[in-house]
Amino acid sequence: MVKFEQVYEENFKYIYNFIYMRVLHKETAEDLTSETFTNAFRSYDRFDPSIASVRTWLCSIAQHTVGMQLRKASTQREVTTDVIPESSREDEDTLAVYEINREAERILSNLTDEERYIVALRLQGELSFKEIADILGINEKAASERYRRVIIKCRKYTDGKSMDDFM
């Protein structure tokens, strides 16, 4: 089996982005990513690659971790309002990335938690509908249809741009 350090290095950014798509708050995503990898490390000896890929397994742990956090929170989610540091305002690439991130946040904030989860699994996680179905406990056709409905809903907020431009 692969060392956990390699699993961490190869999947940290992926899991952070996956969680961020669910919570839309930088510090919360950082905390939950740390908690996810702590939980994964504790149970890594029980991971069975014949049941799921490492990413699918980590997504399941992340989903559970986020779910626990959302149940604990009694207040509405905050949407980050990070400000670009003055020194980087001149950098057009930084500004472009910032604007894309803000637009993605705007679109995602119009979705329910479950809808953001499905988008995260498919676009960020690059999981197949079969893998998504396994995680959600539904059949593959239902997973595909749920994703299709979410994308149709998202298109109302994208001004004709592809969702891939924001992910």
What does this structure look like?
The chain has 167 residues and is an all-alpha fold. The protein has helices spanning 4-23, 26-43, 54-72, 92-108, 113-124, 129-136, 140-155. Helices cover 66% and strands 0% of the residues. Helix 1 packs antiparallel against helix 2 (26-43) and helix 6 packs across helix 7 (140-155). The radius of gyration is 17 Å and the shape is globular. The chain starts with a helix and ends in a 12-residue tail after the last helix.
Précis, in short:
66% of the residues lie in helices and 0% in strands. The protein has helices at 4-23, 26-43, 54-72, 92-108, 113-124, 129-136, 140-155.
Characteristic key phrases:
single chain; 167 residues; mainly alpha; 0% strand; globular
> What is the chains' assembly state?
single chain
Unreliable stretches (pLDDT < 50, length at least 5) are 74-90
Total beta strands: 0
Cα(first) to Cα(last) distance is 31 Å
- Number of distinct helices: 7
Q: What structural category arises from helix and sheet content? A: mainly alpha
Structural shape: globular
Q: What is the number of independent domains? A: 1
**Approximately how much beta-strand content do the residues carry?**
under 5%
Order of helices and strands: HHHHHHH
Largest sheet: none
The percent range for helix content is: 55-70%
User: Could you report the average pLDDT, rounded to the nearest whole number?
Assistant: 80
Rg measurement, Å: 17 Å
